[in-house]
Amino acid sequence: MDEVRPVIEQFAERMFGGFARRDQRGKGELYLRGLMLDGKRKSMQPMAQRLEVDHQQLQQFVTTSTWEHVEVRRRLTGWAGEFIAPDALVIDDTGFPKDGKDSPGVARMYCGALGKTGNCQVGVSVHAVTDWASAAIDWRLFLPESWDDEKATDGGAAAEIRRRRVRSAIPDELRHREKWRLALDMLDEVIGEWGLPSRPVVADAGYGDATEFRLGLTERGLTYALAVSPTATAHPAEAAPVTPAWKGTGRPPQPRYPDPPQDLKSLAMAAGRSAGRYVLWRHGSRKTPGNPTASMRSRFLALRIRPANRNIPRDSDGSLPECWLLAEWPPGAPEPTDYWLSTLPADTKLRDLVRLAKIRWRIEHDYRELKDGLGLDHFEGRSWLGWHRHVTLAAVAQAICTQLRRTPKAPAQA
Fold it and tell me: Per the database record, which ranges form the Transposase IS701-like DDE domain (predicted)?
């Protein structure tokens, strides 16, 4: 810590330079050091013991002090745009297991950290990503319907929800919104308000299966490579709508596709294994005797298709928009195992499609580092504001680690 502390102080000055008071800037730097110090637990009391300070200093800074975590995220986004120069913006969410029911947004939901449904909070995040680095630049705490009194049909239940919201100091205007809507809100923030350059958006099927999310990205002029379920339906790209003959009575018929859409699995199977090509998208870190270079390699096929959904706007001739279907068909597998839809240009090379679709691996690294090393899920407070401040500070701490890894001589130069 003595060696890297000058770098932490310099980074903290950039992130917290907008704070009105010097003591707030000092407490912010202190909190970052607490997150980065050795120690399994990164809640306030254990951190304060390691820092040899009163834990109330940390608690007051996170829960009641007057500073804007949104401004810190804006500065972090500016750093990520310069230092990481992201190739993609990746959307994901992660669970925060909880024992009680008073933490904001806590409910029985599927929790990846538990591998099952359990009592947890869920945070949705946006990450600026390249193959070599990534940063969690924005966050939203997901509010289930059980935390929205406007969704309650029973007066007593609504009153209890309101009491819980007041205890957690949840702003009244914040209501239940689907995770994909939270993701769009954050993209509007980081690109539209904070000036991060537009980049392709990548996410798992929890987002890719939401037609509204895909349309929302297109409306914003953002391309994407989104995982989807094989049961999604589409027409082949060469399919064309046909207008039935009009008999002169009634409403004129609209153009429509003569054949029903097929699911993505059927389209891939019809193309056949031979339509695929082997692609190496990166080298991993786990070398084995059978794979000394730790190469990540598999067979992929890419088809031009037209996703079919009644919510998708059609052109004047009735045709649906065209995009890529990417499917991974590993050697020895009887059928493809993973599917993506992508609106990257039609002349995009297969290896570029695969690299973008697979870049989500960086998020697994982010969550692992944030949770195992930097205490992302160790916050024990029960306030909405405290949660958002804590995850913001954990993200700043991770950004410092990223900068130190990329510039190993920085501590000595400082």
Answer: 15-287
